[in-house]
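Re: the pair you flagged

First of the two:
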Amino acid sequence: MLINKLFDTAIIGGGVAGTSLLFTLARYTDIKNIILFEKYDEVSQLNSNPNANSQTLHVGDIESNYTYEKAQTVKRSSSMVANYIQNFSEVDRVGFKKDKMLLAVGEEEVAKLKERYVEFKTLYPYLELWDEEFLATFEPKLVEGRKEPILAMGARDQITTVDYKKLSESFVQQALDTDKNIQMRYNEEVVKIKREEDGTFTIISDTTSFRVKSVVVNAGAYSLLFAQSMGYGKEYAILPIGGSFFFTKEKLLNSKVYTMQNPKLPFAAIHADPDMTQGWNTRFGPTAFALPKLERYHELHLKDLISALNIDKDVTKVYTNLFKDKTIRQYILKNVLEEMPLVGKEVFIHDAQKVIPSLNVKDLKFAEGYGGMRPQIIDKKKQELMLGEAKIEEDGLIFNMTPSPGATSSLAIALQDARSVCKYLGKAFDMEKHENEIQTLQTEELNVLESEAAEVAIA
C-alpha cells in the first residue's frame, strides 16, 4: 500500500466538529500540512446536517436543563459560533436571527420560571418575561384554547438558528483560503490508526495510507471505537439514542419555543422550531429512544455496534437503573410508541399540545428522513450515563465524542484541541488573532447591537 507524505495533523470526520478544527488550525496556527478524512462525498452528512438536528445555537438562556454554572460555560462556547457568523458575514446564510423563549405551563412551572429569570437575567441581560397578554399578540397559537396559566422567558433578535452543514462548508472554505497545504479526502473511510515506533502515526484508509504526526478523531460514536482499537477508553461504552421529529403542515410559530425540562429525564424536553428546510414551518421534537444503529439512515455495521455497546455487567447495571425509575421508564416507552406509524402521532400530540393547545393530530406529519443519532457515553467504572462531551487525549491523539449540543461548542472544542496539537508539535497558536476574530464581536457589530439596545430602552 502506498504511503504518502508526512502531514502534521490528520482530522478524521468532516462534521462541524472536524471542520471547525480544520479552520482553527489553518487560520490561527503555524501548522503547515493538514489532512481531513470524510467517508462521505461532502461534509456534514450525519448529525451536522440540518435534517438531523434542531438547527439551534444552544446558548443556555432558554434550556432549562442547564444549571447556572453549565450555562456560563455554554454561553462562552456558543458565543464563538455566533461571533464567527457575525464577523465572517454569514448572517442569513449560515446563522439566522429569530426570537426564542422558554415556556412555562401551569402554576408550578410559572413559579420556577420566575425564579430562573431572576437568576439568569444576570448572565443574559437581554432576557424578558412575557405574560399571557403579550404572548396573545406575539405568538397567539401559544394562547388559543389554553386553560392553564403560562409565562415565557424570551429573547428577541438573537442568532438562534444555524445551518451547521453550511457552517462546516464555510469553515472548509476559510481554511482552503489560507496558504496552508490542506488535503480534503472525501469518499475515503479510515479503517485503522497505527502508532509507529518513531512516534508518528499511519492512517490507513480503504484506498491508501498516510503518515501523520498527530491525529484528532471527530467521528461521533466511531471516535470511541478508534480509541478502543488502540487500547484507550475501555472504561466507556455507548448508548445510541435516536431522535425523530414531526412537522406541522403550515407555519404556526415565528419563534423557537422550548418547554421546561423534567429534572429526572436525561434528554431534552420537547420544543418547537421554525425549520429552515421546510419554509420555516414548525417542527416539533425530538423524540428520544434507544436505537441499535450508529448512523440513523445508513447501513448498519453490526460488528461496530456490538463494539460500541461494550455490554458487560457494568453497562447492564446502567440500563437496569434507567428502567427502574418510573418516570424514565414511562418516557422511554412513550417515545417508542411515538415512532410507530399507526399510533405515533396520537401519542405525540399530547406533548405537542403543551406548546400549541389547539393542535390536532391531522395537523402533524412524521418527518420522514429527519432525525439523527446521539451517542450517549456510559462510564462503566462509575456505572452512570455521562451527559455532555467526552474526550480521550493521549500523546498526539485526541478522540472527541460530542453528543448534542456538540455543534454549539464546536469552535470552543476546536480551540482546546488546536492548542493541544500545537503544544504536542511545538507549534505556535495566534491567540490574539483568535480573540479578535472569534472570541469578540467586531466593532461595527458591537455598535449596531448597542444602537439597537438603546432604541429598545427608549421605546
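Second of the two:
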Amino acid sequence: MLVRLLQPIRQPLSHMRSDLVVSFAVAFAILFVSFGLSAAQRPDSFADEVEKLSPSVVNISTTTIVNDGPSVDMPQFPPGSPFEEFFKNFGDDNRQRKAQSLGSGFIIDAEGIVVTNYHVIENAEEIRVVLADETSFTAKVLGQDKKTDIAVLKIDPGETKLTAVAFGNSDDLRVGDWVLAIGNPFGLGGTVTAGIVSARGRDIGNGPYDDFIQTDASINRGNSGGPLFNVAGEVIGINTAIYSQSGGSVGIGFAISSNLASKVASQLAEFGQTRRGWLGVFIQEVTPDIAESLGLKDAGGALVSSTNENSPAAKGGVQPGDVILKFDGKVIDKMRDLPRIVAETDIGTKVDVELFRQGKKKTVQITLGELEKAELVGLAGGDKSAEDDAKQSFGSLGFSVQNLTPNIAGEMGLDAEKTGVVVSEVIAGSPAAEKGLQVGDILRRFGQRPVEGVADLAKDINDAEKGGRSGILILIEREGRERFIQISFAKK
C-alpha cells in the first residue's frame, strides 16, 4: 500500500532534493502506521470474545396459564330450562390453556443468579433456564421490578459449573462504540449480533426511570432480557425493546443501561424488591417560556410544582416554584433526569440540592427517604377562608378570576372546603386558552409566591405587565394535581 501511494508522485520527486524525498517518505510512513493502528483497534473478529461470553447467556422458557373465556357466545335460557343443561358443556366459561414464551437472560453469579426482563417472566407459572449446552433448570423469582422491566431469578446449579459475567460502567460508553448482543431471537438460541452504540439516554416511554442505550445490533423477539456487551466483555445493557413496524429488527434496538440495571438487580437479589431513594416532589419540565418568566438563563432543571407533606423535600425546605438545578452534585439537564438520579441514590443519604429561587441559587441539604415505604399523601391546600366574591378580569391574558367561596365551589362541582382564587372565565383564542387554562382551575401561586386573593393577584399581574415582562407564570390546581403554566401577554 505504501508503494502504491507513492507511485503517483515518484516522477516529480526525482527533481527534488534527496532530503526532501526522505521527509516525504517518513511522513507517508507515519500516516500508514497511523492507519494501521486504527484498523487494529477495530476487531477483525469477535470469535474469541463470543466463545468466552456465550456460556453466561441463557435461554428462558416460561409457561403461563391463559384464560380464553367461553368458546362460543351461548344463548341465555330461563333457569330450569331443559336446554340449560344441554348447552352447559358447550359454553364452559373457564376454558384455560398453557401459553409458552421464550426470552433471554444472563448469569451474574456462579451460585445461580440470573438477570432478565420483567416482561419475559411476567405472570409465569413455570420458568425454565436453559444453558448454552442445553442443560435445563427450574428457576424461581427472587425479585421483579416493573418500573425498570428487570427481574432476577435463582437456579440451583448443583454440580454444574456456571459462567458469570460482570456489569460494566455504561457511563463510559460513547456513541460509535462496538457492542455485541447475544440471545435467543425467535427461539434460535445462542445467536450473536454486533453493532455500535447509536445513542445514549433514550426515553422511550417505558417507565419513569428510562435510560436506554440505542444500538443497531440486530435485536428481535426473544432477545429480551439478554445482555449487550462492550468489547471488554462487560454487560453494559439489557436488551429490552425494539422499534419496528414489522416486528423484526430494523436496526433500532434499546437496552437498559447497566448502571441502572446493576443497582436494581443487586437490590432484587438481596431484598426481593427495590429500595429507591424518595424526595417527595411533583415536577415538570422547564420550558423556554417558563425559564424566561423565572429569570433563568437556560431552560434546564426540574420545576417543583408541589411537594408531598412531610416528605424529605418539604422537611429540607424545598418549595413549589423552586427549580432543582443539581442533585448530589449531578446536573439536572432535563426534568426526567431527576427521578432516575434520586431513585439511584442510597436511602438515608444526606445530599446537597441546588435550587433556583427568586432569581438566586440556593443549596439545601436533604436526607432521602425510601420510596417503597413512603405513604403518598394529598397535596397541601390553602387554609384561608375566602368569603369575598370579588371578580377581576385580565384582558391582556384572556381570563377572569374570583375568590373561591363555598357557594361558588358547589356551583362548579368542587369540594365546598376548597379556598383560593378560581378561574371563572377563559376567552376563546386568548393566550390563556392557548396554554390550556380552564374554568374551575384554582390559582395557587404567581411565580414563586402564594396567591393570597384576587386583589393581590391583580396587583402582581399589573406590576408584571407594566414592568415589561412578556408574560406570567402561575401554579394551577386541577383535579387534585398542581402544575405551572406560562401565559404570555397579548401583543398590543
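Residues 69 and 95 are 6 Å apart (CA to CA).

-B.
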